[in-house]
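Field reference: "sequence" (input) and "structure" (output). Example, Reverse transcriptase:
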Amino acid sequence: MECAPCPVIETFDNIDDMTWAWKTVHENILNEHLSERIAKVRSNSLPWMNSHIRKTMKRRFKTLNLAKETGTKKSWDEYQNLRNEVTYLLRTAEANYWKEKFELLEAGRKIN
């Protein structure tokens, strides 16, 4: 930021041109020094998925790659534990989701 050509901005008389120049200078600096990150955005996610399950799945995936890379018993055991934990989390989350749905449906029928 110290090396940014800020005096160039002051050469403009119009405030809109100065804003454009300032924005261009700073965007160029950011693009040069920060890498772009690509993220998946899922629009049709399962209704019972939450951030805890996703984070555990991500840890499981990283542990699987490590286990494949190293081949140690410890890394494979850790992967198997995470795999079992993800399975448990998914099953209980789905069961709770459907239980709540059926309870709401049953409560709706009693009210009507």
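The mean pLDDT is 86.
The CA atoms of residues 30 and 58 lie 28 Å apart.
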